Amino acid sequence: MHIDSGNMILSNDRFFKGAEKEIVPVGDMSDLDKNIIQFLKDNPNPSDEGKGSVHEWAEKNNYDKHDVEEAIYKLMSVFVKFLTNGRANEKGVTEKDVDPEELKMGIEIEYEHTTDMATAKRIVLDHLAETKNTKSKYYTYLKEIEKRIEDEDKMAKK
After folding, report:
1. Do residues 96 and 65 touch, judged by C-beta distance below 8 A?
2. How far apart are CA 6 and CA 26, in angstroms?
3. 130 and 87 in contact (C-beta within 8 Å)?
4. How buried is 130 (Cβ within 10 angstroms: 0-12 exposed, 13-18 middle, 19+ buried)?
5. How far apart are CA 58 and CA 5, in angstroms?
6. Using a CB cutoff of 8 Å and minimum separation of 24, what contacts does 66-70 make?
7. 21 pLDDT above the threshold of 50
8. CB 145: neighbour CB atoms within 10 A?
9. What is the pLDDT of residue 100?
10. How many angstroms separate the CA atoms of 39 and 52, rounded?
11. Strands (E), 12-156
């Protein structure tokens, strides 16, 4: 089973075996995984039964509802591990510990990797926790560097 994180996915098979996290190209996911991810993107917070439910979707797409539920639970386990691991969690850094402007700027920047707020915030907190000073200006510095590179590229083209 896998979890979508843009054009790459995390494989939970390795998580459950206690091995290193494995990044797998989306193309290597099973059809069931891909279809479940798309279903959940299109139908946030679906119920188990009834109109628009997981069971209705499974039946309509010729999947066993128990197989679909098991796959969803595994996907959620991977996502929970993703959200609860990382540098910020290791160091106990929360959004209260970081500069709110850096957090906001970081989330905007990290949206290039995800459309999920929790994932973007998690990435930002991990980056900010990597420095000794959680009030660091990591994203301010990143924008300055990107601007400098952009200016140098413009100058080189002249």
Report:
1. no
2. 9
3. yes
4. middle
5. 23
6. 67/32, 68/32, 68/36
7. no
8. 10
9. 93
10. 10
11. 22-25
Q: Mean pLDDT over residues 62-83, rounded?
A: 88
DSSP state of 92: T
Q: How confident is the model at residue 13, as a pLDDT?
A: 39
| Res 26 pLDDT > 50 | yes
The residue type at 157:
K
Q: Return mean pLDDT, the chain.
A: 81
Question: What is the residue type of 71?
Answer: A
Burial 75-96 (b: 16+ CB within 10 A, else e): beebbebbeeebebeeeebeee
Residue 103: in which H helix or E strand, if any? helix 100-110
pLDDT digits (tens, 9 = 90+) for 121-158: 989 999 999 876 767 788 999 999 999 999 999 999 87
Selection from 81, 134, 77 nearest residue 103 by Cα: 134
DSSP annotation of 62 reads T
